Amino acid sequence: MISVEGLKVEFNATPLFEDVSYVINKKDRIALVGKNGAGKSTMLKILAGIQQPTSGVVAVPRECTIGYLPQVMVLSDERTVMQEAELAFEHIFEMQADIERMNQQLAERTDYDSEDYQKLIDRFTHENERFLMMGGTNYRAEVERTLQGLGFCREDFDRPTSEFSGGWRMRIELAKLLLRRPDVLLLDEPTNHLDIESIQWLENFLSTRANAVVLVSHDRAFLNNVTTRTIEITCGRIYDYKVKYDEFVTLRKERREQQLRAYENQQKQIQDTEEFIERFRYKATKAVQVQSRIKQLEKIERIEVDEEDNSALRLKFVCSSRSGNYPVICEDVAKAYGNHVIFHDVNLTINRGEKVAFVGKNGEGKSTLVKCIMDEITDYTGKLTLGHNVQIGYFAQNQAQLLDENLTVFDTIDRVAVGDIRLKIRDILGAFMFGGEASDKKVKVLSGGERTRLAMIKLLLEPVNFLILDEPTNHLDMRSKDVLKEAIRDFDGTVIIVSHDRDFLDGLATKVYEFGGGLVKEHLGGIYDFLQKKQIESLNDLQKSPSLSSSPSAEKTVAGGNAGATVAQPSAAKLSYEEQKELNKRLKKLERRVADCEAEIEQTEAAISILEAKMATPEGASDMALYEQHQKLKAQLDSVMEEWDAVSCELEEARK
Which segments constitute the ABC transporter domain (predicted)? Predict the structure, then answer.
């Protein structure tokens, strides 16, 4: 369908890639991969015809249609969601208008026997059949299915697009693109603004209903579920693998090992040749051989080893100090904007050292609860308690966009670094692949992934014991994500991760909080345990019969005919529910006592510090009243510490 021949792209006379050739065939599912800045987005723009290459040809057949979804786009705010999505069917509306015009002519004309009239009938019949084949009469149902698949409710269809966030408006653009059914879909990071359910719907759509697809994504699970071919851009060249991403990783490793062996052999050959030239350069009898070796050296085509593997991103979150046992306790927390309730009756306790995931559709309150914890939102109801000595490090969704674009990479970090760390800024930047001249780049020329890495460095310089990461993997390449995942896993403190990246959360989160319908539900286990449970719940919901469940006789029906067992079940379930309710009440009471003790400890320690500072002055050293007060506070602190220890032990026992 699309043929790429001898493609070359240069920026400031520096080649991004050159001599690139490949073909996109019908039904191809291609993953375009490579490190940040390798030229993936540039390649998509060239295929879409938005950007021209320095040289080379991209041959696209005249009848071939291309749909392109960029990472960032300018969006219109003039229509409702449904009206905007229906723009995908403009060609059908034009065809419908044309058919109506022809129908009107057929009704008005009277030259029934003329050749022109017969031609008009034939054209009307042909266009009408084509209109019906293209789904002209049921396009609205297709629009509704697609919008709902991408997370919109029916109530949203008539809302103006201006009421939605940038992420939701990107979904509308994606819906329009999918509805047009182009021959080739070019998608640049399509999952960045989608939740897990919408990603799964998109996976199914692309796998079963789309034509050719070329996509850039750093979501490993998404790539594995959609693509069957992987094209890697590295060292200015491309390598084409006819396999999905996981198999590509294995083959790539083998290729790099072959590269290394060939590189080492070539370096040995070059070294031997250079030594021969140097040894016999000034001997007349060897002049011919020396000249021959010099020419031989000039003709050698130097082997390059993949640049991506020459530098490594090394992340280490240092836990500043030990926090209390329960960094976050929420009791009946609720937040609403006017009449719109975001969530209500949120009761959760996060233990020290836990790594939990916040998941759910966009707009269900994940980031809102995070902002409540951060004290950025204070007008919520209920009680939200932060534990003793909790020091929070926060990475927001838009953290990378908040950087000052006019500063250099070095200056960005230099402004936040304090103390001895300022002497090590160059080393830190080098560890994050900003070594050498890269540290002098302006922020405005950095790619999305490079900005995210820079924002992550700023977070690393903060001494914290509680990390809150809101979509930290957006724009990060695969290797950077793997290293970030490893750093979070090794972090001794507590972590909340808001993410839709299943592969990133797998093996990292041990507890999942699901946001939806104004509620926050706790699920023990990893992300795939949660998704499996959700799938089973969805299937069970489909299988339930309302008439059967509401029928009194239905309760007595049991497989195997043992009716007595079914009748006894409700009382047993009710009893266990009551017991669980009592246990939860007791746990909440103990958690409150622990939180109160931690708050009192913190206040008492602060008061003791103030007294000790006064006692260290010449005037305070002779003030006996200060010493007496100091002794009282120490005794009070010991008492509270004993109570805190006893209640904590009691709570631990109750949890078992």
Answer: 2-260, 328-542
Please state, in angstroms and rounded to a whole number, the distance separating the CA atoms of residues 264 and 508: 38
Please indicate, yes or no, whether residues 105 and 197 belong to a single structural domain of this protein: no
- Among 160-164, 301-305, 402-406, 469-473, whose mean pLDDT is lowest? 301-305
Is 625 inside a domain boundary?
yes
3-state secondary structure of 379: coil
More confident residue, 78 or 406: 406
* Domain enclosing residue 98, as ranges: 81-176
Q: What is the pLDDT of residues 176-205, one digit of tens each?
A: 888 888 899 999 988 877 888 888 888 988
Mean pLDDT, rounded, for 90-97: 77
Q: Output the pTM of the full model.
A: 0.62
Cβ 460 vs Cβ 315: under 8 Å: yes
Q: Which of 281, 310, 339 is the last residue of a domain?
A: 310
* Residues 399 and 354 reside in one and the same domain: yes
pLDDT of residue 468: 94
- Those residues whose C-beta lies under 8 Å from the C-beta of residue 317, and which sit 6 or more positions away, are 393, 460, 464, 467, 487, 488, 490, 491, 493
> What integer is the mean pLDDT of 244-256?
88
Same structural domain for residues 414 and 521? yes
**In 3D, which of 243, 238, 227 has the Cα closest to residue 28?**
227
Q: Which two tokens stand for residue 58?
A: 């991209």
> CATH number for the domain including 334?
3.40.50.300
Determine which of 17-26, 372-381, 556-565, 638-647 has the lowest per-residue pLDDT on average: 556-565
- List the structure tokens of 416: 């936040």
The total of structural domains in the chain comes to: 5
Residue 551 lies in a domain: no
Same domain, 340 and 454: yes
Task: Report yes or no: 53 and 46 within 8 Å, Cβ to Cβ.
Answer: yes
Q: Confirm whether 305 is domain-assigned.
A: yes
Joined together, the tokens standing for residue 501 give 């990246």
Cα 648 from Cα 653, distance rounded (Å): 9
Residue labelled with tokens 């050159």: 18
Phi, psi of 86 (to 5 degrees): -70, -15
Is residue 249 in some structural domain? no
580 with 597, same domain: the answer is yes
**53: its two tokens:** 């290459």
- For residues 358 and 464, membership in a common domain is answered with yes
Higher pLDDT, 262 or 386: 386
Q: Using CA atoms, how far apart are residues 350 and 352, in angstroms rounded to an integer? A: 7
Residue whose token pair is 């396999």: 243
Average pLDDT score over residue span 220-238 = 91
In this structure, what are the phi and psi dihedrals at residue 516, rounded to the nearest 5 degrees? Answer: 180, 140
Give residue 205's identity as a one-letter amino acid code: F
Beta strands in 480-572 (DSSP E): 494-498, 511-516, 519-524
Query: Residue type for 299, please?
Result: K
Cβ neighbours of 569 (radius 10 Å) = 12
Looking at residue 49, its pLDDT comes to 92
- At 559, is the pLDDT very low, low, confident or very high (cuts 50, 70, 90)? very low
Q: Is-contact 230 30, C-beta < 8 A?
A: yes
Output the pLDDT for position 137: 61
Burial of 331 (0-12, 13-18, 19+ CB in 10 A): middle
601 and 333 Cβ atoms separated by less than 8 Å: no
- Which residues neighbour 266 within 8 Å (Cβ) at sequence distance 6 or greater? 300, 302, 303
